[in-house]
Amino acid sequence: MARFNKMQVLDAIVSTGMVPVYYNKDVETAKQVVKACYEGGVRAFEFTNRGDFAHEVFAELIKFAAKECPELILGVGSIVDPGTASLYLQLGANFIVGPLFNPEIAKVCNRRLVPYTPGCGSVSEIGFAQEVGCDLCKIFPAGNVGGPSFVKNIKAPMPWSMIMATGAVEPTEENLSAWFKAGVTCVGMGSKLFPKEMIAAGNWEAISTLCRDALATIKKYR
User: Coiled-coil regions in this chain (predicted)?
Assistant: First the structure.
């Protein structure tokens, strides 16, 4: 079961403003990436369900995080159906993220008071997600559904909305400042935070530095 309650999860995501998004089929590489992010100040991390036996990697990762990164809140992403959500909840996922909105997933997560952040591409989808208890909604793919201006225009008639932007987010001051000035609650960041050459070289300190710098930029523009 989840080690952190719903309020703790949302507080960590809101307070840091960034959730790294990552998948690797190799358990040891995944562990090193999680540890590097943790040392860079990350407190919420999304491991994505994007490969065969990904749940087996996650099972090892969450046990590792509990021991080596005690304050890290580990969740799972790329979830599109309630059965897969249930599998990861049983393995200890602290939050569930999806590329789409499936109200049946909300039921599974609500039953255990675990946050569900669905992917939404319209104002109506965000509204429907909020109706079933999704506190934090993800706009995805953020760069294609309207970018920062889309967020700004959502917040005007629906100022209570908590928005995570994922897709087209980069660890640069220009990019992050635009998202946070528009009013996002947080961002999800994937490949730009984990350059392939850094992973291949095992340059974990460089990843920690990228995380640290991105979090500093977010703090500056909130």
Answer: none
Which residues, in sequence order, are CB contacts of 156 under 8 Å at separation 6+? none
Measure the CA–CA gap between 153 and 144, rounded to whole angstroms: 15
Strand pairing partners for 165?
A: 139, 187
Give tens-digit pLDDT for 169-209: 999 999 999 999 999 999 999 999 999 999 999 999 999 99
Residue 193 near residue 171, CB atoms below 8 Å: yes
Radius of gyration of the chain (CA): 16
Question: Residue 3, exposed/middle/buried by CB under 10 A (0-12, 13-18, 19+)?
Answer: middle
- Distance (Å, whole) CA 172 – CA 166: 15
Q: Which whole-number Å values give the CA distances from 68 to 34, 72, 123, 209, in the listed order? A: 10, 9, 40, 19
Instruction: Give the separation between CA 216 and CA 109, rounded to whole angstroms.
Output: 32
Residues 161 and 158: their CA atoms lie apart, in Å, by 6
- Per-residue pLDDT tens digits for 61-99: 999 999 999 999 999 999 999 999 999 999 999 999 999
Torsion from C-alpha of 14, 18, 22, 28, nearest 10 degrees: -90
11 contact partners, CB below 8 Å, separation of at least 6: none
